[in-house]
Structures are given as C-alpha cells and as structure tokens.
Design a protein that fits this description.
The chain contains nine helices and four strands, in the order ααααααββαααββ. It is mainly alpha-helical. The protein folds into two domains: 5-88, Di-heme elbow motif domain (Multiheme cytochrome fold); 101-196, no CATH class. The protein has a two-stranded antiparallel sheet with strand order 1-2. A hairpin with a 2-residue loop joins β1 (116-119) and β2. The longest helix is centred in the N-terminal third of the chain and has 27 residues, at 5-31. The chain is elongated, with a radius of gyration of 25 Å. The N and C termini lie far apart (92 Å).
Length: 204
C-alpha cells in the first residue's frame, strides 16, 4: 500500500511535534528537580545549604513558585529559559530569587495564629511582624528568614533581629525596648559583658 506524499508529510510533522512535546515536558520536569538546580556550579552553595536544612524534603519549586496556575506557567517558562541558558553557557554568576509569602503560607499558615513562641531566649510573634508596619515598612517572611548561604537555608539569625530593632535607635526606646522581646528577669543575667536584672521601670 502506497502512502501519498501529503500523508507521509503529515506523519513526519506529527512525529516531530510528538518528539517536541515529549522533549519539552522532559525539560520542564528536569528543571523542576532539586538535582537540576544544584547541577550548575554557581548554584552549588545554595543547593548544599538547602540539602542540609529543615526544608531538604521540599522541592525548590514548591517555595520558589508561588501558588496559582498563572505563576506556575510563568515559572515553567522561566525554567525553560534557564535550561536554554544552562546548555548555551549564557547564565549569570550571581543568581537571584525571591520567595513570595503566599508560598511560605502554603505550609506555614498557622504561624500567624499561634501567638507568641520562644525563639532562643526571645518571645516572638509572627502576627504583628507580618500584618503591621515595622519602622514604616511591610515585612515579608524572607525579611527575617533571610539566611541562604551564610547559614542554614531560610533560618533566622540574631543579627537579623538586631539590625532591625537597634539600628538608629536609642537603647530602651522604640524598637530597642528590651521587654518587646524579653521577659523581665527574676534574677541577674549576664550577656555581652553586661549584667541585667529586674528594674522598677516599666518600658513595656
């Protein structure tokens, strides 16, 4: 049985389209895996930080792609562009990414409802930090959870708290008030070469 010229062309076009679809799907799937993220040498420190963190069982895209089909499609397009830049060697050496609060709250939505909790020796409340202005600025989850390479992935360090609470502030005033975060000690405490004890002054 002979096939017409147009029938052969149709099969060829269909085969090419099929291969293209499979290749595109494969590339999109590959670009969504943490192992692909870590395969580029400029991403190695970020990948290693993630692999040792409490988020090591969470795929990169679960945080770096915001919820919603529109964001999913946009990020898939960006991922494909990353694949192309990776194979052509045109990627940059200073990677940048942003995690939207909506991605964090997909898993941590109850953080805003839990009230005060202990972080080290600090009483911390997520609610006011995310729902109210802080020094005239609207904070995001990553404003505090900012450690990417220097520490464990997405953790908080005391230096982050100090920068916001004490920069340009008089000790004991404004955001530098001790009792915003600490309970009044019932005994003398020593830290940084200074002694702290209960005071009759109420600066709450």
């Amino acid at each position: 049985m002979k096939l017409g010229r147009f029938t052969v062309a149709g099969y060829a076009i269909g085969l090419i389209l099929g291969i293209g679809i499979v290749a595109t799907y494969g590339a999109m799937h590959m670009s969504s895996t943490p192992s692909f993220c870590g395969s580029c040498h400029v991403m190695s420190p970020y990948y290693e930080s993630w692999a040792e963190s409490s988020h090591a069982n969470i795929n990169c895209v679960d945080c770096h792609i915001s919820p919603g089909i529109t964001q999913e499609l946009r990020k898939k397009y960006e991922a494909m562009a990353m694949v192309a830049r990776y194979f052509t060697g045109t990627y940059g050496t200073n990677p940048w990414a942003e995690v939207d609060d909506s991605a964090c709250l997909e898993c941590h939505e109850r953080r805003l409802l839990m009230g005060r909790e202990v972080f080290g020796d600090v009483l911390f409340d997520h609610g006011p930090h995310l729902s109210e202005l802080r020094r005239g600025k609207r904070l995001k989850c990553t404003s505090c959870h900012s450690q990417i390479v220097q520490g464990s992935h997405m953790t908080v360090t005391a230096t982050t708290c100090t920068l916001c609470h004490f920069k340009g502030q008089q000790p004991g005033e404004g955001t530098a008030r001790c009792t915003l975060c600490h309970q009044v000690p019932d005994r003398v405490l020593s830290a940084g070469g200074l002694d702290f004890a209960a005071s009759p002054r109420n600066d709450a």
